[in-house]
Amino acid sequence: MQKLKAQQTNSQLDRDLREIVDVLENAAQHEGKYLFIRDGKIAFDDLQVQNGSDETSYLWDAMAKRTVVEAVDYDQSVSKIGDYAFAGCSSLTTALFPAASSIGDYAFSGCTSLSRVYFPNVSSVGVGAFISCKIKEADFKELTEINDRAFNNCQSLSTLNMPKVISIGSSAFAGCGLLSASFPLATEIGNQAFLGCATLADIYFPIVTSIGGRGAADGQTFAGCASLGTANFPMLEYIPASAFRTCYALSYTSFPEVLGIGTDAFYRCYSLVSADFPKAEIVSAGAFWYCSGLKYVNIPKISYVAAYAFASCAALSHIYFPSATIINYNAFEGCSALNSAHLNNVSVIYQSAFTRCTALSVASFPAAQTIYTGAFSGCTNLISLYLTGNYVCNLAASNAFASTPIGGYSDVAGQFGSIYVPASLISNYKAARNWSYFSSRFVAYEG
Questions:
Q1: Beta-strand (E) ranges in 329-408?
Q2: Which residue among 278, 288, 339, 407 is buried most deeply as judged by most CB within 10 Å?
Q3: How far is CA 317 from the centre of its chain?
Q4: d(CA 334, CA 343)
């Protein structure tokens, strides 16, 4: 051991720390060299190192003063750092372990002054190993596994060099000050791994296939990364819940292999312009809710447009869902730029699905079987609705067209709005429950 320094507060403390130095230097000769410090004792592997019964309490008292330890430098003497080894060393600023191959759980947790580390041979970092440290750069060239919360809340951590990492645990870098994250070999990222990294602008994960679980409480992988501009995941198959929630600067994404998108996955991604998911078959509730800059959507394989999936996408002017059969409640609520909706296979339109789509003037649903309460309420420019199936579509409530030209008060068909149906069904529509309120709106469809 080269050095173990401390603040020189009094002579007793000096003697205490010298005692620790002596013990560590002698213990370093033991095989295994597995260092841990717990309950005021120092050990290598399973061998408890003490200087005799008379000095045990003396050493214990010295380690109770671990908060004053400032630096540890072990050259080639330590190959492993155990659980809680330096936990709570709040004055520790430097930790240099060139021969260490692994770092245990919470090994440096609470080392709130730790800013310089050197672990060139470490392959695994344990759970919570560096929680709340002041590390600015993390250079771990041989690291392959980052466990849960390993660097959680390292607010000063801005630079990473971890080219061999394969897996990143949950909340591993949550709350860090990262500017970029490049993991060319990573295949798996845990839930909330980069949650709240507000300065993270660039990411690179070319072979990642998973970025969190699929449960309602999972995900949030990059949530709150307000500076993140691009997300390119060429091999990712599923985007979990809230994965990119409130990534305000996110403007470009590429997910060519994604099959499903979780709840609120892109919630409030204001800068997102395009949503191109050619293979996606599932888009969950609120997936693009409040993406106010979204203009283009290409998700041709989904059969079910979930609740609030595109609600308040104020710039969305056109929609194309050739496989969709169900539009759930509030799916397009507040899409104020949407001027037309032609959905040939949709059979059910749920409550408030298009409410307050104030630019919507033409809507066509040739396969519609049921329209629910308030489905088009507040569509103040809706003048043409096409229901061209060879049956009468069920209207659950007359307020489906509240505050629309179709729902206006006029006895002259077409003055306020028209409902185009097959000529052979006009009389049936006029007599049908709830449709009778719009008897003057029906026009024979000549398609």
A1: 340-342, 348-349, 362-364, 370-371, 384-386, 394-395
A2: 288
A3: 27
A4: 18
Core vs surface per residue 235-259: b (16+ CB within 10 A) or e: ebebbbbbbbbbbbebbebebebbe
User: At residue 235, what is the residue type?
Assistant: M
- For residue 9, count other CB atoms closer than 10 A to its CB: 10
CA proximity to 88, closest of 42, 43, 38: 38
What whole-number percentage of the chain has pLDDT above 90? 73
Helix (H) or strand (E) holding 22: helix 11-27
Tell me: pLDDT of 148 over 50.
Answer: yes
> Residue 401 corresponds to which amino acid?
F
Mean pLDDT of 137-149: 96
Q: Which amino acid is at 19?
A: E
Of 317, 304, 390, the C-alpha closest to 350 is 304
Question: pTM for the complete prediction?
Answer: 0.84
Average pLDDT over residues 112-134: 95
CA 113 to chain centre: 29
CA distance 303 to 325: 5
